[in-house]
Amino acid sequence: MNPVRLAAALGCGLLFGFGLALSRMVDPAVVRGFLDVFGDWDPSLAGVMAGAIPVTFLFYHLAYRKGRTATGEALPPPPSRSIDGRLVGGALIFGVGWGLVGLCPAPALIAWLFQPWALVFIAAMAAGMAIERRVFAD
Fold this sequence. Notes:
By secondary structure, the protein is mostly helical. The chain has one domain (about 5-135). It has 6 helices and no strands. The longest helix has 23 residues, at about 45-65. The protein is globular.
């Protein structure tokens, strides 16, 4: 693997993980508080998302203008824009899991450092990914 790409991936991953921990997205109670819009709603994660969206937009815009990633690789083709059963089913499973457990995949990878039970979520997530690959092998 290209050492520049590896260093960039490591740096971005560490920065992303630090941001998740700092914003408390690794705490299921905070996530559930955000999702509880008809109860004791905690809007703090809305601020996290509001801050992340412009940064993401800026870097995607710069990459597409340049035609390459920051490490020089070609950009992948745009994803499909079609809404099909796989997309809707995946979104439903993701949303139900997020609501029940209070974690989504990226924060779960950090959360186990603070809450060891998150390893069960990570194992279930890995099993689901393996099943998806077998069922929908192209």
